[in-house]
């Protein structure tokens, strides 16, 4: 471990970005504080601050390596908690404009896991680090500045109680909820360039119990939208006994949030295999939707001036 040269770092947000940033910075700072506006669940559950939490989240091979580097043994803990091991591309079936990808073992093992379980297990590991703590149900309100207009800490609000916390570094991991662009303008740093791309994407997801003859099967399927088709899907095993089904639609073509309509919608996918499987399965959860009208990239790296801290 490297010696801790600085005293305190504050991370805004306890999602995966905030948790992994805390794991990385715990070796560099004596005190690591995570600020989280949600009252975090004690068991794996979808939470308000993670609006995409009900939908499929997939790992690339490098993500597995990176998490293991910073949190050794985390993959074994995920599998013990209910994640399902997927052998790419042996267990996962891709269908795109070129047709189904040939089934072969790429030698890459990744977990099929729900976002709530991933976040829950990761949070437990990160908070077990002795110099990491979290202030939950605490809302970040603004950055504090020093005489040079550089960031020197944050102001937060927990219930009716407000306070300032000094720091050597603040890391904004609040995602789309960030207030940093407006703060930069208000403090004369200027606008961050923001290229945008309209995507009109919507997700609808739910959990299904597979029929007895497919119980325990590690088969997963990613089906891409082949133009002019606007529909895509990801079906993957979770918790060892369920399927998580996420349907993706473009241009307002959103899958319904009721079971019969959801399954019927899958008839419009490029290949019938997901419809055939879900038609035999039992829905066991509510269905949740999430919309992303456009993607954007905040180009802080292109700014002429940026505050220290």
Summarize the structure in words.
It comes from Ruegeria atlantica. It holds the Pfam family FAD_oxidored. There is one protein chain. The chain has two domains: 1-57 and 115-178, FAD/NAD(P)-binding domain (3-Layer(bba) Sandwich), CATH 3.50.50; 59-113 and 190-309, FAD/NAD(P)-binding domain (3-Layer(bba) Sandwich). Strand 9 (151-158) and strand 10 (161-166) form a beta hairpin. Helix 3 packs across helix 4. It has helices spanning 16-25, 61-70, 74-81, 115-127, 180-186, 259-265, 273-279; strands at 6-12, 29-35, 84-88, 92-96, 99-100, 108-112, 132-135, 139-145, 151-158, 161-166, 169-172, 196-209, 220-223, 231-238, 242-250, 282-283, 288-296. The protein has seven helices and 17 strands. The mean pLDDT is 93. The strands form four sheets. Strands 4, 5, 12, 13, 14, 15, 16 and 17 form an eight-stranded mixed β-sheet that branches. Strands 7-2-1-11 form a four-stranded parallel β-sheet, covered by helices on one side. The protein has a three-stranded antiparallel β-sheet with strand order 8-9-10, with no helix packed on it. It is α+β, with helices and mostly antiparallel strands. The longest helix is centred in the middle third of the chain and has 13 residues, at 115-127.
Q: Provide the gyration radius in Å.
A: 22 Å
Strand content: 25-35%
Overall average pLDDT: 93
Instruction: Compute the number of structural domains.
Output: 2
Q: Name the shape in a single word.
A: globular
Q: From the helix content, strand content and strand pairing, which structural class follows?
A: alpha+beta
Major sheet: 8 strands, mixed
CATH architectural label of the largest domain = 3-Layer(bba) Sandwich
Share in helix: 10-25%
How many helices? The count is 7
Stated plainly, the CATH topology of the largest domain is called FAD/NAD(P)-binding domain
CATH superfamily of the largest domain: FAD/NAD(P)-binding domain
Low-confidence stretches: none
